[in-house]
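Module 6 notes. Inverse folding takes a fixed backbone as the condition and produces residue identities as the prediction. Think of it as a translation problem where the source language is geometry and the target language is the twenty amino acids. Below is one complete input and output pair. Work through it position by position during the lab.
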């Protein structure tokens, strides 16, 4: 009797499979009847249908019609991938890449991505290129990275198009070529890649590979900013503030910078402080400026340190305090901020708050000048000319004077012409 019942149940399952197919499952999926889709898909998937297996993996991964369950998703993706189903092979790469349900394993991720990439999956080709460029499997291989990025980019993958642009822009996996970089940025940007949009905006601002245009710079960076790209928001804030490619509007700049800060861009904290600083008319508010500069200091931003120091030194919106000016300039100077290094040199030279020391003044002025800061280059030339903190040295005087002139420092140009 039990044997007969088993045969009957088997025949019922066979009939059920005969009646339903993946096409029926997909119709339910399109109608967003996910619970029904899962119920119908399971027996078909268990019978070895790779498309149904993949569908179940996707539904479990995304919590559609069932509670999100990466373990179940991995189980079904694995079944489909082991049958050679392309989409599942890519998903296996993603799961191993990110450690979803299983231990993160870059080598296994690469192996699955390669399986899919060799079947011309553009997204998988991007990851293969990325692994070669990152050197996650051993040595970096820029040539292979370029090959896979290029295959993927030609197939229309926006991430690979962006990576190719970076290769040409930076001269990493390809010879530096700003025209080609701009071209690939544009292809990626036209597909909505926000990083490409922001970088293309920068290319237009600087005239790199394209005809310089502040208006187009604003256009593309605004597209990226509208997608919550924090760097682009910071750039757009500056454009509203300075009227670059758009009409000046400090209120808009404040709005944009606040959004960038909310998205975690710490450099925007200092930039928002600058909006409230003295130079920007209707939005001027020294107290708010210092408030944001202090927040920037907490975020370890050397520019905020320098700006807060300046306001302490000149008493802008805060009580004049040379000790605190020195403190914050020194913090910024230790981080390599060139103008702060110059200011520390001046304070040592004049003995403001600190014991006067021409030697230390010379040391800090040298640090600033060595970074290519033209004013420091000119002043260091004067130190060598007059023997401030060092021996007089006519050769070094002329050398640093020339460097300052080459950097378009007018006083150096005038002084050189009179020699």
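Target side of the pair, the amino acids:
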């Amino acid at each position: 009797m039990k044997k007969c019942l088993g045969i009957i149940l088997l025949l019922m399952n066979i009939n059920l499979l005969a009646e339903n197919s993946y096409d029926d499952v997909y119709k339910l999926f399109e109608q967003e009847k996910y619970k029904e889709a899962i119920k119908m898909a399971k027996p078909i998937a268990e019978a070895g249908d790779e498309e149904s297996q993949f569908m179940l993996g996707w539904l479990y991964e995304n919590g559609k019609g069932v509670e999100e369950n990466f373990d179940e998703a991995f189980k079904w993706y694995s079944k489909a991938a082991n049958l050679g189903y392309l989409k599942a092979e890519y998903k296996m790469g993603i799961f191993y890449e990110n450690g979803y349900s299983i231990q993160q394993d870059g080598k296994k991720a690469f192996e699955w991505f390669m399986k899919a990439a060799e079947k011309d999956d553009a997204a998988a080709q991007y990851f293969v290129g990325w692994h070669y460029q990152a050197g996650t499997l051993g040595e970096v291989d820029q040539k292979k990275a370029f090959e896979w990025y290029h295959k993927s980019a030609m197939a229309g993958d926006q991430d690979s198009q962006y990576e190719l642009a970076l290769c040409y822009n930076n001269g990493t996996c390809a010879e530096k070529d700003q025209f080609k970089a701009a071209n690939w940025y544009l292809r990626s940007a036209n597909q909505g890649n926000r990083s490409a949009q922001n970088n293309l905006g920068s290319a237009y601002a600087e005239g790199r590979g394209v005809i310089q245009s502040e208006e187009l710079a604003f256009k593309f960076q605004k597209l990226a900013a509208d997608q919550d790209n924090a760097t682009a928001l910071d750039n757009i804030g500056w454009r509203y503030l300075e009227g670059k490619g758009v009409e000046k509007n400090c209120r808009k700049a404040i709005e944009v910078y606040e959004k960038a800060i909310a998205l975690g861009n710490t450099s925007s904290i200092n930039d928002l402080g600058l909006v409230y600083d003295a130079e920007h008319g209707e939005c001027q508010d020294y107290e708010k400026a210092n408030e944001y500069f202090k927040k920037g200091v907490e975020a370890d931003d050397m520019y905020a340190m320098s700006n807060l120091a300046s306001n302490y030194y000149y008493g802008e919106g805060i009580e004049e305090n040379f000790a605190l000016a020195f403190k914050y300039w020194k913090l910024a100077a230790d981080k390599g901020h060139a103008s702060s290094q110059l200011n520390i040199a001046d304070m040592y030279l004049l003995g403001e708050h600190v014991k006067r020391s021409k030697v230390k003044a010379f040391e800090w002025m040298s640090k600033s000048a060595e970074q290519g800061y033209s004013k420091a280059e000119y002043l260091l030339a004067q130190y060598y000319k007059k023997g401030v903190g060092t021996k007089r040295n006519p050769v070094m005087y002329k050398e640093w004077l020339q460097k300052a002139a080459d950097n378009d420092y007018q006083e150096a140009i005038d002084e050189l012409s009179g020699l």
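Reference fact for the lab report: The chain has a mean pLDDT of 93.
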